[in-house]
Design brief:
single chain; 396 residues; alpha+beta; Glutathione S-transferase Yfyf (Class Pi), Chain A, domain 2; 3 domains; seven-stranded mixed β-barrel; 7 strands; globular; VPS9 domain-containing protein; SNARE binding; VPS9; UPF0507/Ank_repeat_27
Length: 396
């Protein structure tokens, strides 16, 4: 099973099933059906109709292990983490199961939810749906979005050639500054954008629709940086080696650090494990946006309201005064060998600034403040770091 994770309870498909089709959701969960949820990055162009939702609610076939029938009568099998579609489906190519998760219904009975790589039914061509809600998160989405139209293969070949040339030149940048790496990668992104927008199926609508243009930029950046990630990130790590070595030396000496040592309130300690789990996936992402969303999920996990210790009154809401100590604790405990390289990659190599860039800016400013605190040995002056994070955010 691939290394992939997302919060299925927040997945747009799962939320649509629960909120827009409550009767189907109640029947499915009460009867402990298996629900297939397409990963968030595959929902671009998906039509959230009842027919398409029905195709993802599975009932097991008696005396036929691994065989299922959907609530609208279509057949499929699930074996070795692969879904194979049969009678009733238009397409029959296999779909990987990314991971599975156990949920519980109103009667506290378990039912299985499978996160799958793409919808079983109901997906449309990229050009058919370009709303502001379009989501591009997987490498398959990027390639389909950019090269799915007629003539796309020609442009893909040109972009791949530009990527190949860039990788060939990277060794010349080994002793160069970080700025040289940023400028060279920015030039590659610009060149790839120019090639992609030669496609008449994308160019005209993209210039008429800012949301579509944003998706084009995100897809180009993600495709290009995924392809060059290993050699490029190695170069970034080399440029930031001194900073990371200094930070690592300090964190090793703080291996016995406890939450109370950095002033984390008792009530918020329960948010730490989920955030730590989220940050643990940071190195599994190869694009700046992938890492940014990972950081976003981690910070949001920390910011979840919690019940007061005395169980009375409204839940406690996290403030920036609480957030920074928690991030400092995670920086120390995560044993991440290249924090500064990751921060720089997210900050300086995200050329396709998305509509929620200001939100990402806040998360990056908070992480940078935590790294600065630990790196400077300022474990007691936490309030200074809060002011630094706020100043970085509001000055953008």
């Amino acid at each position: 099973m691939d290394l992939y994770d997302e919060d299925l309870s927040e997945n747009k498909f799962f939320r649509s099933l629960a909120d827009k089709f409550p009767n189907l959701f109640d029947v499915a969960t009460c009867n402990r059906c298996t629900i297939c949820v397409p990963c968030v990055g595959s929902l671009l162009g998906f039509k959230f109709s009842k027919e398409n939702i029905d195709s993802h609610v599975l009932v097991p076939v008696e005396e036929k292990p691994c065989c299922f029938v959907t609530v609208n009568g279509k057949e499929l099998t699930i074996q070795s983490n692969v879904v194979t579609r049969g009678n009733g489906f238009t397409l029959t190519d296999p779909i990987p199961v990314l991971f599975e998760e156990t949920f519980f219904n109103a009667n506290d009975e378990s039912y299985m939810v499978l996160c799958i790589a793409q919808p079983l039914d109901g997906a449309t061509a990229v050009g058919d749906s370009q709303s502001k809600d379009s989501v591009l998160n997987s490498f398959t989405d990027y390639t389909t979005f950019l090269w799915g139209e007629t003539g796309g293969e020609k442009n893909k070949k040109l972009v791949d050639q530009a990527i190949g040339s860039f990788i060939g030149r990277l060794h010349h940048l080994e002793r160069e500054s970080l700025t040289k790496h940023i400028d060279a990668t920015s030039d590659l992104f610009t060149k790839a954008m120019q090639i992609v927008l030669k496609n008449r199926h994308l160019k005209k609508p993209a210039f008429q629709d800012s949301a579509l243009m944003e998706n084009v930029k995100i897809a180009v950046e993600a495709y290009v940086l995924h392809c060059v990630y290993k050699p490029l990130f190695a170069g970034i790590c080399s440029c930031l080696a001194a900073h990371d070595e200094q930070l690592n030396k300090i964190t090793r000496n703080l291996h016995e650090l406890q939450l109370r040592d950095v002033g984390v309130r008792l009530e918020f300690c329960r948010n730490i494990p989920r955030a730590r789990k989220e940050l643990g996936y940071l190195m599994s992402y190869s694009t700046p946006l992938g890492k940014l969303n990972c950081l976003k999920r981690a910070v949001r996990s920390l910011m979840q309201p919690v019940q007061r210790a005395n169980q009375t009154g409204n839940p406690l809401a996290l403030t920036t005064d609480d957030l920074l100590p928690m991030l400092i604790f995670l920086v120390v405990k995560m044993e991440m060998p290249n924090w500064w390289a990751n921060l720089t990659y997210m900050t300086s190599f995200h050329f396709a600034k998305s509509s929620n860039h200001d939100e990402y800016g806040f998360y990056l400013a908070c992480l940078e403040a935590a790294l600065e605190h630990v790196g400077a040995g300022q474990m007691e002056a936490l309030m200074d770091g809060v002011e630094t994070a706020q100043a970085c955010f509001f000055s953008q």
